Amino acid sequence: MLEVTIKTGRTHQIRVHLASAGHPIAGDDKYGDFELNKALQKQGLKRMFLHAWRLQFDHPATGERIALQAPCPQSCTDSQTMPASRPRQFDLIAFDWDGTLFDSTAIIVRCIQMAVADVGGAVPSDRDAAYVIGMGLMEALAHAAPDVPRERYAELGAAYRRHYINHQDDLSLFEGVLPMLADLRAREHRLAVATGKSRRGLDDVLRTVQLAGVFDGSRTADETAGKPDPRMLHELMEEFGTEPQRTLMIGDTTHDLQMALNAGCPSVAVSYGAHLPDGFEALQPRAIVHSVQELHRWLLGNA
């Protein structure tokens, strides 16, 4: 339960504020979680879980302080109708890594550009270099440097890795990622990473103290098929025994969203990473969010 003190008289302010924070009032038929409301009605909650339990004011004639109090009705205290935890919509939540959880887009773009220059290729624009983020490394480099001959791909890949290693200490998680992941774990969601990174590169960051034990599983492009092939998600769903409709993919590129679509899974797009959001709508994400904080709120309210 939440106790709220009203400071102003704006219409529906408690209901609107709680809904915007991802915690709509149970039974609210205007701003609430309609699926949750249906479940609560079956449990016996026939009203909105909002109760004015105390009112205080000064008597207009005597100035005496008047305090009125109404006990919470039985329908809101009965253990059979009290809202339990929100029904979980997704058992498995898979995150892309770079540009979704890890603030690495700008450095990856620069490393791709420097690697292409090292082997004498035409340096791709920022947008072209960012487009390939999320693909497997060699596929991405080949796409970003179409004029580089295939026999030099190994040299191109080595140059990229060298530049990336030189800059990896400049990288960090986006602000707000750790509290978001902690809240999801507390709600007993399975958490996974589905990334175009190499296994070695992902393991290096997952071994840090702040991420130890946070994720239940992961797949990388060098051990399975790269995005948008759905194999990463198929393998994760098989590992954790989840159905596509109970698996959510979250990513910052059209490759992530297309992979989810190919796997039959719902998705959420984030606009703060590698790809501009122009092409997201066509791939039918449940939501397009513009910050980690907005993603956190959406997940608390909808996952």
Task: Pick out its properties.
303 residues, alpha/beta, Rossmann fold, DNA polymerase, domain 1, 3 domains, six-stranded parallel sheet, two-stranded antiparallel sheet, elongated
Would you identify the regions where 5 or more consecutive residues have pLDDT less than 50?
Answer: none
Mean of pLDDT: 86
Q: Within the CATH hierarchy, at the fold level, what is the topology of the largest domain? A: Rossmann fold
What is the CATH superfamily of the largest domain?
HAD superfamily/HAD-like
Give me the side-by-side strand order of the main sheet. 5-4-3-6-7-8
- How far from one another are the termini? 21 Å
CATH class of the largest domain: Alpha Beta
Order of helices and strands: HHEEHEHHHHHEHEHEHEEH
In short:
The chain has 303 residues and is an alpha/beta fold.
Describe what you observe in this structure.
By secondary structure, the chain is α/β, with parallel strands linked by helices. The chain folds into three domains: about 60 residues, no CATH class; about 140 residues, 3-Layer(aba) Sandwich (Rossmann fold), CATH 3.40.50.1000; about 70 residues, DNA polymerase, domain 1 (Orthogonal Bundle), CATH 1.10.150. Helix content is about 40%, strand content about 10%. It contains twelve helices and eight strands. Strands 5-4-3-6-7-8 form a six-stranded parallel sheet, sandwiched between helices. Strands 1-2 form a two-stranded antiparallel sheet. Strand 6, helix 11 and strand 7 form a beta-alpha-beta unit. Helix 4 packs across helix 7 and helix 6 packs across helix 7. It is elongated. The two termini are about 20 Å apart. The model has no long low-confidence stretch (mean pLDDT about 85).
